[in-house]
Design brief:
five-stranded antiparallel sheet, single chain, 394 residues, rod-shaped
């Protein structure tokens, strides 16, 4: 009978040295915020391969790989040989059908070394990977599925994107528009959900919103969108403007010290509440608190009526204005002021009291009634009428 020989124990020590490289390739994590902008790959914190065989492969048991943002890295171009490519603030450039490697030197410490990064084109016949070549990223060049795959397990569309490793939900931030379009007239929610996925966002008409039109349907709309309890925040960008239809305020509108122009009608108050205009000028700034203006014949705005503020008794000031057809409903108090340039008859209860001045040359004749007392009375009456402008000789 033959003799049974049990197999020897299979240990890492019995593996080839390339086994260490294999383990390093499948244990890469980290990267922070990883960005592919369409041409360059960038990560903000170290990519780390850990654990790797300590001492025999890495003296620290792990390998750090920080993205270079300046200098050059080794490049194996399509035509053969080697050269370099420049790193920028956007990271390392990777073209179609190229891959990014980190060439680790067995037994080295964990620190990252820019000179160990290497970009390789698949047609380069001089490239011969050996122990320590760790694959970090590769770019697919097929027109229908061009993309960049990174060793931490994320794949970017070729147009670009950002992957935040530290985010709780690993949020995607799209960097450019994508090419896929929704089927024309698509409204079914299930169909929309199937077409709108993380890596392939629909190309929509600017300004449209996805609005539910029923329990199981939705539509893209730019008009007629009804929001039950909307909250508008932020600032409308200059040049875009905001046009509102008829709407009802639910509270006081604060214009924030801005002008309200092109108002056609302004209705104040209601059937049961008095409408008010309030001028808020304070005593410390006493002066004109409210001003009504209109344009003149040269289309220049002129002040017409002003109201003072910050005082106990306000003054209305009329400028470049006249009045027609004023009917008083109470006594007129001239407040010891003059009434000038009156050129019409003054009536009391339809009886003429004062008319226009009577001009008669006889007003200057000598009074000679034959009686001194009578002459004195007549002279006094004449002086009073002349003084008050009722008569004149010329």
């Amino acid at each position: 009978m033959g003799t049974y020989n049990p197999p020897q124990a299979h240990t890492l020590a019995s593996h080839s040295t390339k086994d260490n490289t294999m383990f390093a390739n499948v244990q890469i994590t980290g990267g922070g915020v990883i960005t592919w902008n369409g041409t360059h790959l960038l990560w903000t914190t170290r990519l780390i391969a850990m654990p790797v065989e300590k001492t025999e492969f890495s003296s620290d048991g792990f390998i750090n790989m920080d993205c270079p943002t300046s200098g050059t890295v080794v490049y194996y171009p399509e035509g053969g040989g080697t050269s370099t490519v420049a790193c920028t603030a956007d990271g390392i450039p990777i073209d179609a059908w190229e891959a990014l490697y980190y060439r680790f030197v067995r037994g080295s410490a964990s620190g990252s070394d820019r000179t160990r990064f290497c970009v390789v084109h698949y047609k380069n016949a001089d490239w011969s990977p050996d122990d320590g070549w760790i694959l970090l990223a590769t770019r697919n060049g097929d027109a229908t599925c061009e993309s960049v795959k990174v060793a931490v397990g994320v794949t970017f569309p070729i147009a670009g994107g950002v992957y935040d490793v530290d985010a709780v939900l690993s949020d995607w931030i799209a960097s450019t528009a994508h090419s896929h379009a929704l089927a024309a007239g698509a409204t079914d929610v299930t169909a929309l959900a199937a077409e709108l996925n993380l890596l392939d966002l629909a190309t929509l008409t600017a300004g449209e919103l996805l609005v539910a039109t029923g329990a199981a349907s939705a539509a893209w709309q730019s008009t007629g969108v009804l929001l039950d309890t909307p909250t508008i925040q932020g600032t409308v960008a200059a040049g875009t403007g905001l046009t509102l239809p008829a709407f009802t305020l639910g509270g006081t509108m604060d214009a924030n010290s801005q002008a309200l122009i092109n108002v056609l009608d302004l209705d104040l108050g209601t059937e049961s509440i008095t409408g008010t205009f309030s001028a808020t000028l304070t005593a410390a700034n006493a002066g004109t608190a409210w001003l009504i203006m209109s344009k003149d014949t040269s289309d220049t705005l002129r002040p017409r009526l002003g109201l003072s503020g910050g005082v106990d008794i306000a003054v209305w000031s009329w400028v470049y204005s006249t009045h027609t057809g004023i009917v008083l409903s109470g006594a007129l108090d001239a407040n010891s002021q003059n009434i000038d340039n009156v050129n019409s008859i003054l009536d009391i209860n339809s009886a003429q009291v004062v008319g226009t001045r009577v001009v008669d040359a006889r007003s200057d004749d000598a009074i000679n009634s034959g009686d001194a007392t009578t002459d004195g009375v007549i002279d006094a009456l004449r002086d009073a009428m002349i003084t008050h402008g009722l008569i004149a000789a010329a």
